[in-house]
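User: Hi! I'm working on a homework problem where we have to compare a predicted structure to a textbook description. Could you give me the structure for the chain below?
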Amino acid sequence: MLIVHLSAECFPVAKVGGLADVVGALPKYLNKIEGTESMVIMPFVENKFTRTHSLSVDYSFDMPFGGGHTRVNILKNDDLEFPLFLVQIEGFGIREEVYGYDNDPLYFLAFQIAVLIWIHQWDLQPDIIHCHDQHTGFVPFMMKHAHMFPKFRNTPSIFTIHNGEYQGKYSKDLTQYFPWFDTWQFPLLEWDNELNAMASAIKCAWMVTTVSPQYMSELASEPNSIAMLLRQEYQKTTGILNGIDVEEWNPMKDHFLKYNYNIESVTKGKESNKLDICNHFGFDPALPLVSFIGRFVPQKGADVLSDAIWRYLKEFNGEMNFLMVGSGDPLFAHGLDEMKQFTQSKFNTYIGYNEGMARNVYAATDFLIMPSRFEPSGLNQFYALRYGAVPIVRTVGGLLDSIIDIDDENGNGIRFIHLNTDDIIHALRRAKDLYNNKKKLNKLRKFIMQQDFSWEKSAIKYHALYEKLL
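Assistant: Happy to help. Predicted structure tokens:
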């Protein structure tokens, strides 16, 4: 079985969010299943990975696009545990970032067309084409209805929604760049009177998945622009919870950590890493450490969390340490820096993306808090469990699917329901009580580190889905 994954991101090549982690791990674990070959095709990015890793030209061709032709180079890298191909398209300038350019709509459409032109020439056609998020959302339509791709008519396509907020809404003028299709099929490209890549994929893909069962339920039931469409297409929708690469995320072998540890040595290991982090940020290591790691955007609830931290430190005399690590809204980040001046060394920040810093915080922190407004799957809670940090999560999306409250049987974290300061403070008070009960905390750490949220389980579910379609 040959599976081709199409994505704008893939770890370790180019990462903006959790999409990269999924696309960088799922093919690797699929390839461990006998008789399965999985590969990734993504746009070329001029960055550290592509400058320092060997890339060979696998194929080149001239692509008709926008009334002219543009040169396309398919570059191959063999350093990962799956074949990786990067699509280099001339005429779009040097792109050092994955997103954020004025020509993004044209660029990602050109990427999708180039990929299909290249694959269509293969002697051995893929069994499944798996598209990830809106930047590949027009592929299922073109596979079915673009006249230049007849080989794809019976090839199953799967579309995975990693984040339903970013749907790819474009002007209808973009269709002049599409390969020829019959105009009566135009409604398959639009939703709410505009082009919508995600909506088109939901209509045209053979199967639509999300990265957790709960998130699919929320997308189809809660107020959002594609809820009705998902309800209409419910027979081909499902949710499969993400996993993590347990080989990559292993506190015993993680080269970023100053002090490695395993289940047996977790107590001493976390104490040593915590002391190191506390010294770095000026915290008292005797107090519990609560950390946030993520983007400073409304989805992650960092705005409400900062208010709750402020109130907590004022009302409870600074009995906990708080660390916020991430990047996003510059004004919000500036506000966090201002807040540090009034919290008496009980609150600090690290602004920016730093993989090594994030890993050391997972290893050091006692609790990881995720107060998300919505959370398609979440990966940070899995990393926290793997490193013996107790997750504090809002009961939403993949967080609901993966975290059971410690007051229930087999509990592995602390949950709260509403995104407000009162609920967050109540959860923090429970965390403080747990921290004071060292015997219970240490037992819980050993328990959560043994839980299996690996990609092996998730890959088996995806493989079963592929077989069903075939």
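For your comparison, note the following. The CA atoms of residues 232 and 309 lie 42 Å apart. The chain has 16 helices and 18 strands. Good luck with the assignment!
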